[in-house]
Amino acid sequence: MTAQNGEASLTASDITDSSALVHGLTAEEIRTLTAKCIEAKAAAYCPYSLFRVGSALLTHSGSYISGANVENASYPVGSCAERVAMGSAVFAGHRRGDFRAIAVATDAPEPSSPCGMCRQFLREFCGGTSRL
Ligand SMILES: O=c1ccn([C@H]2C[C@H](O)[C@@H](CO)O2)c(=O)[nH]1
Ligand SMILES: [Zn+2]
């Protein structure tokens, strides 16, 4: 699930029961994921791109784990928000099969989807059933 909070933005309160059904989550879970990934964006370290990204994971046990992008002067060394969130989750003890959903927020007007490196990184822990 991708959320933006620039213009034409999605906020947690826009989530309806039917949009939640599409993702196989409850409306409350999507609202919380939306709020958490937007909040996480504020912690981004992105002096090079100036593109803030926040991410939030929901585990089957009901935990929410957030991350934001952390850049580096050597650009490829930086990490996307999704990998920061997943790295924190793994550090907290979560493993493959623990994840129900991952949400991503940016300031862009259109939804943004994870890059190839994040897809590979997430695949290690999400299998094929986690919702984006
Ligand atoms: O899904 C995405 C796409 C981009 N970025 C970051 C990487 C870089 O710091 C900045 C610009 O690409 O946004 C993420 O964190 N997640
Ligand atoms: Zn990425």
The number of helical segments is 4
Q: Give the integer mean of the pLDDT values.
A: 89
Q: Say how many strands there are.
A: 4
The separation of the N and C termini measures 4 Å
CATH class, please?
Answer: Alpha Beta
Bound ligand species: 2'-deoxyuridine, zinc ion
CATH architecture: 3-Layer(aba) Sandwich
List keywords for this structure.
about 130 residues, alpha+beta, Cytidine Deaminase, domain 2, four-stranded mixed beta sheet, 4 helices, 4 strands, disordered N terminus, binds 2'-deoxyuridine, binds zinc ion
Descriptive overview:
With 132 residues, the chain is α+β, with helices and mostly antiparallel strands. It contains four helices and four strands; from the N terminus they run βααββαβα. Strands 1-4-2-3 form a four-stranded mixed beta sheet. A hairpin with a 4-residue loop joins strand 2 and strand 3. Helix 1 packs across helix 2. The chain is globular. The protein starts with a strand and ends in a 6-residue tail after the last helix. The N terminus is likely disordered. Bound molecules: 2'-deoxyuridine and zinc ion. 2'-deoxyuridine (DUR) binds next to helix 3.
